[in-house]
Specification:
InterPro entries: ComA-like_MBL, Competence_DNA_uptake, Metallo-B-lactamas, RibonucZ/Hydroxyglut_hydro
Bound molecules: zinc ion
Pfam families: Lactamase_B
Protein name: Beta-lactamase domain protein
Organism: Desulfotomaculum nigrificans (strain DSM 14880 / VKM B-2319 / CO-1-SRB)
Shape: globular
Mean pLDDT: 91
CATH superfamily: Ribonuclease Z/Hydroxyacylglutathione hydrolase-like
CATH architecture: 4-Layer Sandwich
Keywords: Signal
Order of helices and strands: HEEEHEHHEHEEEEEHEHEHEHEE
Number of strands: 15
Oligomer: single chain
Number of helices: 9
Structural class: alpha/beta
CATH topology: Metallo-beta-lactamase, Chain A
Strand content: 25-35%
Length: 284
């Protein structure tokens, strides 16, 4: 009995200790040991985003086929030995191109993909890599959520079964850590944005990964107003065939006084949150 009481007291101490830790001070914890880190890896005209919290790792997209080595090397350099979660936002090559290599190179936990039939070789490579490791992807859908260490991840799209545009199948997720939040939108277009607004999700976020490399096919006025970010990230290569980011998008962001970082200009962008503040580090 005495032993049980002692154990209970110890447990209580541990629990309250954890609680104090999460109500952190203004100081940033040392890198990699706490807090939330979001890396927008410079993969040119493509997306690859690493999210780390309390030793848990999530990768959202993995660049083009040609970026496979770059992404795998980047993850290894961060000392990552497991990816707890992978999200492949949608089957376009500039998002899932490097995913098969990532799946081959790391132990993988859960994989989220939109439920869509797509027959490109690149997408098949991903499905084959998953099958070889006997991993069954979870079909992503708005309303799902899970924890990544002390961070919370909410899936906000897709919200319909069928879309004309492959981009609209994009898995959109919001990551919340303490009072800070990040919204990662893949290439979701205006239709998906309207659905997210209709669903009544809390889209508000400090950082917006602007959809579709800054194309005018996304970042509608109402959506931007709901997200109301302080910082925007555009993952883009320069030059590119599409004229991304489009001037309209940049003007909309500028009109709201949002600080914009483009990977084409500043390279890989690393953001560190202590739950209250977000520190931004760029590589050039
Ligand atoms: Zn794209």
């Amino acid at each position: 009995m005495k032993r049980l009481l002692l154990l209970l007291a110890l447990l209580l101490l541990v629990v309250t200790g954890c609680g104090q830790q999460s109500v952190s001070t203004n100081q940033s914890p040392p890198e990699g040991t706490g807090g939330l880190q979001v890396h927008f890896i410079d993969v040119g005209q493509a997306d690859a985003i690493l999210v780390q919290s309390d030793g848990r790792n999530m990768l959202v997209d993995a660049g083009n086929n040609g970026d496979a080595d770059l992404v795998v090397d980047y993850l290894k350099k961060q000392g990552i030995d497991k990816l707890d979660v992978i999200i492949g936002t949608h089957p376009h090559e500039d998002h899932i191109g490097g995913l098969d290599a990532v799946i081959k190179n790391f132990p993988i936990g859960q994989v989220y993909l939109p439920k869509v039939n797509h027959t490109s070789k690149t997408y098949k490579d991903v499905l084959v890599a998953l099958k070889k490791k006997q991993i069954k992807a979870t079909p992503a859908r708005g309303g799902q959520n899970f924890a990544l260490g002390q961070a919370q991840v909410e899936i906000m799209a897709p919200n319909a079964d069928k879309y004309e545009e492959l981009n609209d199948y994009s898995v959109v997720c919001k990551i919340t850590y303490g009072q800070t939040s990040f919204l990662l939108t893949g290439d979701a277009g205006v239709r998906s944005e309207e659905e997210m607004l209709q669903m009544g999700y809390n889209l508000k976020a400090d950082v917006l990964k602007v959809a579709h490399h800054g194309s005018h096919s996304a970042t509608g006025k109402a959506f931007l107003q709901a997200v109301a970010p302080k910082i925007a990230v555009i993952s883009v290569g320069q030059p590119n065939d599409y004229g991304h980011p489009h001037r309209e998008t940049l003007q909309k962001l500028a009109a709201r006084g949002i600080k914009v970082y483009q990977t084409a200009q500043v390279g890989t962008i690393k953001m560190i949150s202590d739950g209250k503040q977000i520190e931004v580090k760029t590589t050039r």
